[in-house]
Specification:
Layout: E1 12-13, H1 32-35, H2 37-49, H3 53-59, E2 76-78, E3 85-93, E4 97-104, E5 110-115
Antiparallel strand pairs: 1-3, 2-5, 3-4, 4-5
Helix pairs in contact: 2-3
């Protein structure tokens, strides 16, 4: 069941989605902010502007667990180990959804995100396996 935390143009719960995941490495993954600082800044500002400061603070602690490997152009970025996901999604956008965030089971953070219309820039050294999908 999807329960809206906030409705409106930028922060809306979506439906349930099932994704294939890959296993995580044994080493602690880097912070997402170290891999994609512009993405973390965007998400933090968007969540604060939507009145979600707790979720915005949680973004700073997200780890980069790699990309979904379901296909070469998949744009699902994992920020938690496999098995932590809830079926709820939130979209952060302007006019079109730019980033879809998947909530964790505890609803206090995000376990992954679909990068739609957000320019991640060139693939950094911390992400040598980035798929062809995200720009």
């Amino acid at each position: 069941m999807c329960i809206p935390r906030r409705t409106g143009r930028a922060f809306v719960w979506a439906g349930t989605v099932s994704l294939n995941h890959v296993s995580d490495a044994d080493a602690e993954p880097p912070l997402l902010a170290d891999v994609y600082p512009a993405l973390v800044s965007f998400l933090t500002a968007a969540l604060v502007s939507e009145g979600e400061p707790t979720l915005a603070r949680a973004v700073a602690g997200l780890r980069f667990h790699g990309w979904c490997e379901c296909g070469p152009a998949c744009t699902y970025l994992r920020t938690a180990p496999v098995g932590c996901a809830d079926g709820n999604w939130v979209h952060i956008d302007d006019e079109v959804p730019r980033v879809w965030l998947q909530s964790g089971r505890d609803q206090t953070s995000f376990v992954g995100m679909e990068i739609c219309e957000f320019d991640l820039g060139p693939a950094p050294a911390l992400d040598p396996d980035r798929p062809a999908g995200p720009a």
